[in-house]
Each structure stands twice: as structure tokens, then as C-alpha cells.
Design brief:
A: alpha+beta; 2 domains; six-stranded mixed barrel; 12 helices; B: Rossmann fold; four-stranded antiparallel beta sheet; globular
Chain lengths: 379, 248
């Protein structure tokens, strides 16, 4: 019976196409919206992901990574004195302007690392070594800067190239991999002291204090101890990412915009698939009544509807996910569009699609349950 | 109720007594059947005729177990369908009834062998067995060489033969037909009736046909004429039918 139900479904090419395309649309819209949202959120957190540290210490009023209320340099020593802290180092981070030989300028995110420990250094070098940062005027640039800053030279930027950073000479000594920032600019890594030389002087210059914990210590527990001992705010890496994302969700309209895309996807899927499936059932009312007259039970007919609906859902979901995957590959290759898929997104979309299919099947089931077998004899 | 229970051959195939059936409520109520009695014998081809709205289709639906009467007794092959539950009536139809509809009711997206196998699939038979028996049934109605074609590629007469094959494939003792020839030309109508005649003669099946088509009256063993929700006249032999309807 189930096989015949599926043959009925596949045999009606137009309806089947409409049903599947409704689910494909819904899948693409919901998945794309969620991937866009996560991509943006990951870009928001790119400084945290590029500067890996177990604990980030900040001014008590700081809620997110781009919100800078500088600390005193001595705060690093105060953090180091807290029980369980293995090391503590100051970090500078801020948006600065690079000026190229042709007079063009680009905004970059400058990261100043403790010269002794190089704590928070990029984990993946493409060319050169981290230690080269200690060379005079040395900066490590990310791969994006190779092309972006290289536009002015008419070729990719390479080790040994020189540019101006706030009227100071900077020499490329290495190239690293880094996550893209939301501002669209490249990441430049240098030592903490040199970073302070690149930027205009202020009374307090330390953006954050990075800290590591002793073996066996919980970063969260040590963070709470730092807060208690110094009065500063301490985040584990995960806490800082979550706090940053919470801030953007609460203080920007992004969640509403992306939420609207996802909602539209759900509505489009439900309306197109639900309505098409219902009309498919309506058109087959006489045949279903004939099945009933010939002895098919309500249960088996409802089973047929559920199988048809779930099949449409799975096929549409699969095609939709395939299209999103291809789209994602293209977007990621461009490196200019935020896009991030984690397994929870397809799982959540599958749940949403299942909901749409159940709703669509439910409309048909109501119809079938009320169907009189005697209908088949009426003209 | 056991659908496989053995019933003595002397009992009528279908026995309806004092059937009442109304549709609608209040002032818009329509009495479709008014204390109607009806009987069909085993192995006979019985026609139900009468003007539109006289209650033929309602009576057919009730004796087929697809509609429950408001009052009266419905005994088909020894089974009391009025007292039976919905699932018991469904199980009864699965084994004991074959249906032929005016509009054929073939599924356009299924091949004709799949269409014919539907009653067996409903009974839970395996696909191979169901389609094997469906192919045999189609062979018997002269369509054994077109098993995998879609109904849309067949003429009206051929589609009705497919519907007959579907009605016979599970070898039911009772066939109910609703206007089986009304959509067919004379030649195709004649062919369909000959197949139904054979089905009644060879296996002792009871065939009850609702029709408006006087061209096929000569195939009937008996004829029940209906008017205003009642059997108004029973023509008890082919000779009586020929006398009452000399132009057919």
C-alpha cells in the first residue's frame, strides 16, 4: 500500500515537483538564514578566535570584544598574582589605518601581543615564523591582507614588503591564517610594545589581559577568582564569545532580520507544501474513496499520506541542503560573506521541515478520515 | 463477525429488509429509501433501474457496506452489515466485494497491472503475488499485452475492462457495478457486459448493476425497478424484462 502511495505521488510529476520545491525553498531559506546568522556571529567573535586564550580579563563594564575600556598595564601583574593563574599578559587590540605607497589606505585590526610569551599569537603560520615578530618594525599579516593590502602594489603582499601604519614603518615578517573580522579588514599581529608605538598614546592602553591557568584548574573557576581578587571582569573564552553574541543579539536588529528570513522560509514551506499537498489529496479524493470502498482502512490511507508527505520532506530537505552546501562553498570561496553551518542547523531545519510535513499530512488525514467510501458512487 | 464464515448456498446473496435512509436534517431532509426490501440470489445478474434520484445508488451503497442505513436489516452472504462495526464492514468489503464504478476510478499514475493489484495489496498480499494475479485477471479481459501502460493511454472501453479485472482479481462472490456502460459506446458496452455475464456464470458470482442504459437490459436475469425510494416492480425473469421493455 505504501509503495502504491509513493507511485501515486511520483507519478503526478507537476504536483510532486511543486511539493518538493516548496520544501526546497523552505530548507534553503531557513538554512541560509541560520548559516548567515552564525557566520555573522562568528565574524563578531573573530578577534577571540584569532587570539586564543583561556581567560580574557577586561574592565568590569565590558560586555563584548569590540567594547574597549582600557586597563592599566599593572593589571596584568594583579591577574598573575591570583591563585591558579599560570601566566598573564597584556593585549592591545584596535582598528588602525594602513597607508600604502600609492596613497590608498585600508582599515585593519591591529593585535599587540606580549613580546616575551607571544601569548595569543595566531596558531597557524602560512609563511615565516612567530619569532620573526621580534625583528624591527615586524608585523605578521593574515592571508586576507596579502590580497587586500597588495592591491596597491598590483601583486600579493609578501614577506619583506613595507607599508605605513599610522605614519610608522611596518615590515611584513610573516603570513598567518586568521578568521575574518566583521569590519571586513585584515588582521595584523605585532608585539605589544610595538603596537603601542603604532597608535596614538593614551593614558591607559591595555585592551585586555590574557591569562592561562595551571594544569588541573578550571578556567571558569579561575576567572571567578580573578574577578573576586581584582574587581575586573574575567571571561573564559567561551563565556566571552557568548557574551559578545548576546550583546549583538540584544543591541542590534540582526536577530529580528535573520529571524524574519527563517520565519518566511517556514511560512513559504508550510503554505506552498501544505496547500499543494492538500490539493493533491483533494484531487485524489475519489480515488481514496475507491480505496476505502475496496477495503482500505483509514489507518492504512493515513499511513500512505504520512509516507508521501515524509518522502516529499526528505527529498526536498536533501535537495535544499545540497543547494545550500554548494552555495556555502561558493560564498566561503569568496571570503566576503559570513556563512557558518554547524550540525545543529541541518538538524533544526530537519525538525522544522518535519513539522511542515506533519502539518501538510494532517490536513490530508482530516480529509481522509471524514471521507465516506460511498462518495465513490456519487456522480 | 467472521468474513470467511461458510453460509449455506440456499440463503440469498443479499437480503435487505425494511431499509430506511434519509439525508439532511430538519426541513431539508430527503428520504432516499422508504422501508425498502431487496433480495439478490447467488449467481444471478440483477439490474437496479429507475429515474435519477429514486434511490438506486443509495441502495447499492448500503448493500455494499459503504453506507449505513438509518433502519432495517442488511445481510450480505450471511453477514449482518448493519450490526457490524466500521472495521468489520471494511474487512468484509476487502474479501467479499468487487466494485465497478461509472468513472472507472483508475489511478492515472499507476500502470494498469498496479491498478488491478490494488484489492490484493489492500488484503496484504505481496507485490509479486498481487501483480501476478493482476496480470492473469487482465489476460482474462483481453488486456494481457498492456500490463505496464498507464490508464490514460487506453480507450474508455479498455479502462472499464481494467476496472472489471480489478473487481474480479481477488475472486469476490459479489460484484456491484454503478453505471458500468454509461460512458461507453454500444460495442464496448456489449463487451463489458459479456465479461460480467461470464463472471456471473463461471464462478456463481452475484452481479448487481445500477444502470440507466436500456441497451444492456437483455443481459439481466432479473430487474428491480425503483421509484421514490422503493422497489416499485420486480421483473423476475429475462422474459418478463423483455416484455416490460420491448425496445431493448
Amino acid at each position: 500500500m505504501m509503495r502504491l502511495g509513493l507511485r501515486m505521488l511520483f507519478g503526478d510529476h507537476a504536483k510532486y515537483g511543486m511539493l518538493v520545491s516548496g520544501i526546497v525553498f523552505a530548507t534553503i531559506l531557513i538554512t541560509q538564514g541560520a548559516a548567515l546568522f552564525l557566520g555573522i556571529m562568528s565574524w563578531m567573535c573573530s578577534t577571540i578566535r584569532n587570539v586564543r586564550a583561556e581567560i580574557w580579563v577586561a574592565d568590569p563594564r565590558v560586555e563584548m570584544v569590540a567594547d574597549q575600556k582600557p586597563l592599566r598595564e599593572t593589571d596584568a601583574d594583579r591577574v598573575l598574582s591570583v591563585e591558579g593563574v599560570k601566566w598573564a599578559a597584556p593585549l592591545y587590540t584596535g582598528l588602525q589605518t594602513v597607508k600604502m605607497d600609492d596613497g590608498s589606505s585600508k582599515q585593519v585590526t591591529l593585535i599587540g601581543l606580549d613580546a616575551t610569551t607571544l601569548a595569543g599569537a595566531p596558531p597557524r603560520m602560512v609563511e615565516g615564523t612567530l619569532e620573526a615578530l621580534r625583528l624591527p618594525d615586524g608585523v605578521i599579516i593574515d592571508e586576507y591582507a596579502v590580497d587586500d593590502l597588495g592591491k596597491a602594489l598590483g601583486r600579493p603582499l609578501a614577506i619583506g614588503d613595507v607599508f605605513e601604519l599610522n605614519d610608522h614603518r611596518a615590515v611584513v615578517v610573516g603570513i598567518c591564517k586568521a578568521y575574518r573580522s566583521f569590519t571586513g579588514g585584515a588582521y595584523l599581529f605585532t608585539t605589544y610594545d610595538r603596537a603601542l608605538g603604532f597608535v596614538p598614546a593614551q593614558r591607559k592602553m591595555t585592551s585586555f589581559v590574557l591569562a592561562g591557568v595551571n594544569t588541573g584548574e578550571s578556567p571558569a573557576a579561575v576567572a571567578r577568582r580573578i574577578e573576586a581578587a581584582t574587581g575586573l571582569r574575567a571571561f573564559t573564552e567561551r563565556e566571552f564569545m557568548e557574551s559578545t553574541i548576546r550583546w549583538y543579539v540584544a543591541n542590534t536588529g540582526i536577530v529580528y532580520n535573520v529571524g524574519t528570513i527563517i520565519l518566511i522560509g517556514f511560512i513559504v514551506g508550510t503554505v506552498v507544501s501544505g496547500q499543494t499537498f492538500y490539493s493533491f489529496v483533494l484531487e485524489n479524493t475519489r480515488n481514496l474513496a475507491a480505496f476505502k470502498a475496496m477495503g482500505a482502512s483509514n489507518q492504512s490511507l493515513c499511513g500512505v499520506l504520512v509516507i508521501q508527505s515524509v518522502t516529499v520532506g526528505l527529498v526536498g530537505f536533501g535537495i535544499g541542503q545540497g543547494i545550500v552546501a554548494l552555495l556555502g562553498r561558493m560564498l566561503l570561496a569568496l571570503e566576503k560573506v559570513p556563512f557558518l553551518i554547524v550540525w545543529q542547523i541541518p538538524a533544526g531545519v530537519l525538525l522544522a521541515i518535519t513539522g511542515i510535513c506533519i502539518l501538510a499530512a494532517f490536513l490530508g488525514i482530516i480529509r481522509v478520515a471524514r471521507l465516506e467510501a460511498a462518495l465513490v458512487f456519487r456522480a | 463477525m467472521n468474513p470467511d464464515s461458510i453460509v449455506p448456498d440456499v440463503l440469498p446473496a443479499v437480503l435487505l429488509t425494511g431499509i430506511e435512509k434519509s439525508f439532511g436534517t430538519g426541513s431539508s431532509i430527503t428520504r432516499a429509501l422508504r422501508h425498502t426490501d431487496f433480495e439478490a440470489r447467488r449467481g444471478e445478474m440483477l439490474f437496479l433501474v429507475g429515474p435519477s434520484g429514486c434511490g438506486k445508488t443509495t441502495l447499492l451503497s448500503i448493500l455494499a457496506g459503504t453506507l449505513r442505513p438509518d433502519a432495517g436489516e442488511v445481510v450480505v452472504y450471511g453477514h449482518d452489515l448493519h450490526a457490524a462495526s466500521e472495521s468489520e464492514r471494511t474487512a468484509f468489503r476487502t474479501r467479499h466485494l468487487g466494485f465497478i464504478f461509472q468513472q472507472f476510478n483508475l489511478i492515472p499514475s499507476l500502470s494498469i497491472v498496479e491498478n488491478v493489484s490494488v484489492p490484493l495489496v489492500i488484503q496484504g498480499k505481496k507485490r509479486r503475488e498481487a501483480e501476478g494475479r493482476a496480470a492473469d485477471a487482465l489476460d482474462r479481459v483481453g488486456l494481457g499485452d498492456r500490463l505496464h501502460e498507464r490508464p490514460g493511454k487506453l480507450s474508455g472501453g479498455q479502462q472499464q475492462r481494467v476496472a472489471i479485472a480489478r473487481a474480479l482479481v481477488h475472486d469476490p462472490p459479489l460484484i456491484v457495478c454503478d453505471e458500468p456502460t454509461s460512458a461507453l459506446d454500444r460495442e464496448n458496452g456489449r463487451r463489458v457486459m459479456e465479461i460480467l455475464r461470464d463472471a456471473a456464470d463461471e464462478r456463481g458470482r452475484t452481479v448487481i448493476i445500477v444502470t440507466h442504459d436500456p441497451r444492456i437490459y437483455s443481459y439481466a436475469d432479473r430487474m428491480a425497478e425503483m421509484e421514490d425510494g422503493r422497489i416499485s416492480r420486480l421483473l423476475d425473469s429475462p422474459a418478463a424484462i423483455a416484455t416490460a421493455h420491448p425496445d431493448t
